[in-house]
Amino acid sequence: MGDWSFFLRDTGGGETYLHWMMTAWGWTLAVAVLALVVALVVGSVMGIFRTTPSKLLVAIGNTWTELFRNVPLLVQIFLWYHVIPSIFLSLRAIPSFVLVVFAIGFFTSARISEQVRAGIQSLPKGQRYAGLAMGLTLPQTYRYVLLPMAYRIVIPPLTSESMNIIKNTSVAFAVSIAELTMFAMQAQEETSRGVEVYFAVTLLYFVSAFAVNRLAHFIEGRVQVPGMIGGK
């Protein structure tokens, strides 16, 4: 490979390239975690909307899902960073980090919406009717009967989306977020050590995504429902 000691070289600001890379990794994980929270919350709501008896809620959920999953992520990031703040001037004060979180979160929420919808509709209709027959309201039926089962079923695709979010943070370099990909590009230009830099960054992406995979696998093993999809 080459000499890896350049990671300990001073970047000129009193910090080493190793410290710079670890900081970039922190930004990558911060964007990924916050975007995942946004995606889970919004995606779950839209997925639930698409399975309700209300035509209005179904239309809202379908419109949201189709809108955000059919526009490329990079385009959405540019829209959030350049276009939307120019329309809503109050958003200009919001840090680009937050705008990127919303862009990635909303993009992923469209995919999670589809998965939550599929998870709910995969359950026997009798479960919904049983909850309503017991005197539960429709929101209570979702809260106590349908969603606990649906989320267990969709853990595998949710795992994939969680891993994808970590990888999708790489497009944040386009709006100057100091994440791993931006670090790799800048460090390679300054040191001409492209092989070592990109190998290290690739390793960090792999470690991050693999950790999510193992955590989700552990959770799935603890909550899987015998007889259902993914259960034993």
Shape-level CATH architecture: Orthogonal Bundle
Q: Total number of β-strand segments?
A: 0
CATH-level-4 superfamily name? MetI-like
Mind telling me the C-alpha Rg?
Answer: 21 Å
Give the end-to-end Cα distance, rounded to a whole number of Å. Answer: 45 Å
By CATH, the topology is MetI-like fold
Overall morphology: elongated
The average pLDDT is 88
- Give a quick account of the main beta sheet: strands, pairing sense, barrel closure: none
| Tally of alpha and pi helices | 9
Low-confidence regions? none
Q: What is the name of the CATH class?
A: Mainly Alpha
Proportion of residues in β-strands: under 5%
Q: What count of structural domains?
A: 1
Helix proportion range: over 70%
**What is the helix/strand order?**
HHHHHHHHH
Question: Keywords, please?
Answer:
mainly alpha, 232 residues, 73% helix, MetI-like fold, 9 helices, elongated
Can you walk me through this structure?
By secondary structure, this protein is mainly alpha-helical. The protein has a single domain (5-223), classed as MetI-like fold. The chain is built from 9 helices and no strands. Helix 1 runs antiparallel to helix 2 (55-69) and helix 8 (180-191) packs antiparallel against helix 9. The longest helix is centred in the N-terminal third of the chain and has 33 residues, at 17-49. The chain is elongated, with a radius of gyration of 21 Å. The chain starts with 16 loop residues before the first helix and ends in a 9-residue tail after the last helix. The relative contact order is 0.15.
